[in-house]
UniProtKB/TrEMBL annotation:
Residues 431-653 form the Pre-mRNA-splicing factor Syf1/CRNKL1-like C-terminal HAT-repeats domain. It holds the Pfam family HAT_Syf1_CNRKL1_N. GO terms for biological process: generation of catalytic spliceosome for first transesterification step. Residues 182-383 form the Pre-mRNA-splicing factor SYF1 central HAT repeats domain. This is Uncharacterized protein. It comes from Pseudocohnilembus persalinus. It is found in: Nucleus.
Length: 670
């Protein structure tokens, strides 16, 4: 301690202030001073270092004359608290002090600091009931504007020191002012393992549409906390309907359906009600709408049954336990066997129009005729033909008819197929496909019903669209020509013209070839050449080179090679890239064959702009070089070299073709 302060205190103790500051009630002839704070406060300060008993007498004497003086009461009570700070709380002085506090509040009932000091003093004595009563009296006496500060300290005390009944009593009152306190109470109750009370508060918060967690929890998070509590402590939670709480969550939180079904089953398992748990698992498996939730429930169910088998196996061997084990093993095997059918049922619930899932269910019921018939009927009643997926309703009808056919009930099989024709299918392909129609027409043809087969083809042409018509037209024309050859020339030509008017460009190549071949065999050669001419002008670019080669070959074969020049010239005008080089080399070879050297050279000059001299994979430059060596002169050779350099310079400016380089590396050429 500071020496100066010690000296000052020693000096003050030596001074007898009593002689200088007499209590106002001892002053003769002064009836006014004993009713003033100033007079008494001077005396109290002058006796600040006197023993506590003497100071206490002064406070009491002062309060006889000014009992409503806040300053006297506050310092008096503060002196008492400091004096008893190191005393045992079992001392009688504490009881006397409590009475003084009670007396002070008769006059200081509007002073929050006095109430707070008294409450703190009682808390030190562990007098829970008196603390609560003191805070309650405080709230009754103070104006509403001061309640907030009192509630803060009141609730802090309740959460740290009060008993659970006291806390719940306080919470019921305070939640009308601040709902956030409910959340604090619920967490406190969980810490104290009063899960029954905590669950009630959690449920109230979840059901209150106006409630908002001050700790940032969503209603979903709070519900998961409540469901975990129900799952973990089912025996302790009795004041809420746990099953209904979990079922409400199942209907509301679709992402947690599988887990909530498992929690509900686990709730009954921990209560020892195994049969009810099985009912819950079965109900969940037959209601969930996703494969994920199905597997969650099924795996939990399977684990539950396996653990029961293991638990029974650990018991002592006797007749009763053996029977129980056998029954439990039967349950486990039955559950394992039912997995596939339960899963396909789940998929059907998700999408009742999934034909493949219905067919899978039919196959799984193959050992039970009645069940299989029921599935067939359910599938036909459930599937909307216009919304069928992964197949067609026709697939179900066909299998249903085949089912009756296999058992020899042909009338039923026929009735099913007849009923199928009345369904409103999404498209014609759901009833009949081009392949089925072609098979039917082929069947009629083999049995010599030729015109009937042609009618089937013609009917198919009205049912389907491209590209489904491609095979039908090919088979129709082929079979018709095989049957009548050239006897019905105009009808055949009409068929070809009709298909060429309809067919998409990418599928017309074969029809042109068939038409031209027909004219060659049974019609007029000029007509055939006209068709070839139409073909090279119409087909897709990827077929043009092949079309020109065929056209040139036909012209050369029938009219002589000299007549092919116009075709070559047409090809040169219509091609670019490697195709023009290929056709150009053939054309130049033809001109060289007839001694047309200048025409051949002109062709080389025209097509060389598409040939890269650095990578002469078409061999154009070598052919041209040999040509000049045999048929040219110095001027034409120089011109050849100049053109080659200019073309090479042009390709040097173009981007590198990395794909071509990679292909050569892979082929071992680089």
């Amino acid at each position: 301690m500071n020496p100066e302060i010690n000296n000052e205190q020693n000096q003050l103790q030596k001074i007898d202030f009593q002689d200088q500051f007499k209590p106002p009630d001892e002053l003769q002839g002064d009836e006014h001073s004993k009713y003033t704070l100033r007079a008494w406060w001077s005396v109290i300060q002058a006796n600040a270092f006197r023993p506590f008993k003497e100071r206490k007498i002064l406070y009491e004497r002062a309060l006889q004359f000014i009992p409503q003086c806040y300053k006297i009461w506050y310092n008096y009570l503060n002196d008492i608290v400091l004096h008893l700070e190191k005393k045992s709380i079992h001392s009688k002085q504490y009881q006397e002090a409590n009475l003084i506090f009670e007396r002070s509040l008769k006059f200081m009932n509007r002073m929050p600091k006095i109430w707070y000091m008294y409450a703190q003093f009682l808390q030190k004595q562990k007098l829970i009931t008196q603390v609560r009563q003191t805070y309650d009296k405080c709230l009754q006496n103070l104006p509403l504007t001061q309640h907030e500060d009192i509630w803060i300290v009141y609730t802090e005390w309740a959460l740290t020191q009060a008993s659970i009944p006291t806390l719940k009593h306080i919470g019921e009152r305070y939640k009308a002012i601040d709902q956030d306190f409910i959340e604090d109470i619920s967490e406190y109750l969980i810490d104290k393992e009063d899960f029954n009370s905590a669950s009630k508060l959690y449920l109230a918060m979840i059901q209150d549409s106006q409630f908002s967690s001050h700790k940032g929890k969503s209603k979903f998070q709070m519900y998961l906390d409540l469901s975990d509590m129900i799952q973990s402590y089912p025996e302790q939670i009795t004041d809420i309907d746990c099953e209904q709480v979990l079922r409400d969550g199942i209907s509301k939180y679709v992402d947690e359906v599988g887990n909530l079904w498992c929690k509900l089953a686990d709730y009954y398992i921990k209560l020892g009600n195994f049969n009810m748990a099985r009912q819950i698992y079965d109900e969940g498996l037959n209601q969930v709408m996703t494969v994920r939730d199905f597997h969650i429930i099924y795996n939990a169910y399977l684990k539950f049954e396996e653990e029961l088998v293991n638990a029974l196996a650990m018991e002592q061997d006797n007749e009763i336990s053996e029977n129980q084990i056998e029954e439990q093993i039967d349950r486990l095997e039955k559950l394992a066997d039912s997995q596939k059918i339960l899963l396909v049922n789940c998929k059907i619930r998700v999408n009742k129009n999934s034909v493949s899932d219905w067919i899978r269910k039919i196959e799984l019921q193959s050992e039970n005729i009645e069940d299989q018939l029921a599935v067939f009927s359910s599938a036909i009643d459930s599937i909307d033909p216009t919304k069928a997926e992964n197949g067609s309703l026709a697939d179900i009808y066909i299998k249903f008819s085949q089912f009756y056919f296999n058992y020899g009930t042909f009338k039923n099989a026929n009735d099913i197929l007849f009923k199928a024709t009345k369904s409103n299918f999404k498209s014609i392909e759901d009833v009949i496909t081009p392949l089925i129609l072609l098979n039917y027409a082929e069947f009629l043809d083999k049995n010599h019903y030729y015109e009937e087969s042609f009618k089937i083809y013609e009917h198919g042409l009205t049912l389907f669209n491209w590209p489904g018509l491609y095979e039908i037209w090919i088979m129709y024309i082929t079979k018709f020509i095989e049957r009548y050859q050239g006897n019905k020339l105009e009808r055949t030509r009409d068929m070809f013209e009709k298909v060429l008017d309809q067919v998409p460009q990418k599928q017309c190549f074969l029809f042109y070839l068939m038409y031209a071949k027909f004219e060659e065999q049974y019609g007029l050669l000029n007509h055939a050449f006209e068709i070839y001419d139409r073909m090279v002008a119409t087909v897709e670019d990827k077929y043009k080179l092949k079309a020109y080669n065929i056209y040139i070959a036909k012209i050369s074969n029938y009219l002589g090679i000299t007549k092919s020049r116009p075709i070559f010239e047409s090809a040169i005008e219509n091609f670019q890239g490697k195709d023009i080089i290929s056709i150009g080399l053939r054309f130049s070879h033809l001109e060289r064959k007839f001694g047309e050297i200048d025409r051949a050279r002109a062709i080389y000059q025209h097509i060389c702009q598409w040939a890269d001299p650095r990578d002469d994979d078409t061999n154009l430059w070598n052919i041209w070089n040999d040509f000049e060596l045999h048929h040219g002169n110095v001027d034409t050779m120089n011109n050849f070299i100049r053109i080659k350099k200019s073309v090479k310079a042009k390709f040097n400016l173009m981007p590198t073709d990395y794909k071509k380089i990679k292909a050569k590396v892979d082929a071992g050429e680089l």
